[in-house]
Amino acid sequence: MRTSNITIFSIVRLSIVLFPSLILTQIENQVRDDNPGLFKNQRIYHSAPSPFLKGRSYNIDFITDIPVDSILSSTLYFKTNQMKYYQEFQLSGREGLYRFIYKPKAFPASRIQYYFTIMTPMGIFGAPINDQGNLTPIDKLLVNPVEYFKQQSRLNR
Q: Per residue in 71-99, pLDDT tens?
């Protein structure tokens, strides 16, 4: 009985020592990573609404830390599955927040795609970008709300 207590105590003590060092190592690797897909390399921050329900208006926003007086233009490029080409929408910002309101009656669709750009005297910034640093449009399927909530209730049982 005594050896099993010592073994369990040794394992617990060892995990207390090793676990924090593993976490710190992972954080350090991420902070030092030059991957352009990480937030530290981006100037435009966006979180896509999820789920994107059919028939509902959504705010498609981005936030930037670029000063307003340095922004020459901010643009949303937007298209639906019923459009052949992207449409450009100039966005005006307030305190770093830039917003486009998606209205399903104006843009009926079952799928939408979009991305953002900001032009400054120093260059052009875009979002979202992938791990290689390339601009990659967000592609969202508009979901039937009744079916979505039925599925969620089945999953929660």
A: 999 999 999 999 999 999 999 888 889 99
Reported residue count of the chain is 157
pLDDT tens for each residue of 135-157: 899 999 999 888 888 888 887 76
Q: pLDDT tens digits, residue range 1-25?
A: 555 555 655 555 545 555 555 444 5
Topology at the third CATH level for domain 39-155: Immunoglobulin-like (2.60.40)
Report the distance separating Cα 71 and Cα 120, nearest Å.
5
**H or E stretch covering 48:** none
Burial of 136 (0-12, 13-18, 19+ CB in 10 A): middle
Distances (CA, A) of 154 to 54, 141, 143, 147, 157: 20, 21, 16, 11, 6
Where along the chain do its domains lie? 1-32, 39-155
Among candidate residues 152, 47, 60, the one with its CA nearest the CA of residue 103 = 60
Cβ neighbours of 69 (radius 10 Å): 5
Cα 82 from Cα 95, distance rounded (Å): 34
